[in-house]
Amino acid sequence: MADNRSSMMARTAYLALEEKKAEDIKLINIEKVSVIADYFLIASGNNRAQMQALAENVEEQMEKKGFEIRQKEGYQSANWILLDYGDIIIHLFDRENRLFYDLERIWRDGESISLSDLPEEE
């Protein structure tokens, strides 16, 4: 399982997405199939405003815990927002783009896990 830091990052981001009512949140452990990150976190929003609110809440909650964002893409158009925290990469999609890009299928060799699989905060 990924190290504690990346697990805590994934937990923080997951809870931030839940708080803003993200839909169909999927957490995929990709550490055994890729060197780019330990986790992909994929979620959907209903419209541009919600997508941006999801991204903002993730950034805010991650910053509170001392996790720095490396890169952010797609915020303005808000049909696919990518938040790269190094150990975890968060993909926020509108419905149409999520179906089109189908990251869950592309990364199916990764292990789909749930929030309860991540360690609780100390």
Record keyword descriptors for this entry:
single chain; about 120 residues; alpha+beta; Beta Polymerase, domain 2; six-stranded mixed β-sheet; 4 helices; about 35% helix
Structural class: alpha+beta
| CATH topology-level fold name | Beta Polymerase, domain 2
Q: Major sheet, described briefly?
A: 6 strands, mixed
Strand content: 15-25%
Helix content: 25-40%
Please identify which CATH superfamily we are dealing with.
Beta Polymerase, domain 2
Please report the distance between the alpha carbons of the first and last residues. 17 Å
Question: What coarse outline follows from CA principal-axis ratios?
Answer: globular
**Secondary-structure element pattern, one letter each:** HEEHEEEHHE
The gyration radius over C-alpha positions equals 13 Å
What CATH first level would be assigned?
Answer: Alpha Beta
- Ranges where pLDDT stays below 50 over 5 or more residues in a row are none
Let me know the number of strands: 6
Number of domains: 1
